[in-house]
Write a structure and sequence with these properties.
Layout lengths: L2 H26 L5 H13 L3 H9 L9
Helix pairs in contact: 1-2, 2-3
Length: 67
Amino acid sequence: MDNSDFFILIFLAIIGFFWLLPILIIIRSRKTTGSEKLAWILAVIFISWFAWIFYWLLAPIKKKGNE
């Protein structure tokens, strides 16, 4: 493997990480649980990153004292 192949592999790994980042954030989030969380993850995968923006805007906001 020469240097150009290595840089292409690193570049693709960085792109893959940024593509997975919204999914990882939703998985770790406490805003939603269970099937609702799964629905948001599927929306991000199959619709687009815009679903991740909608997640931040529309996911239920739980008050800390009422969980």
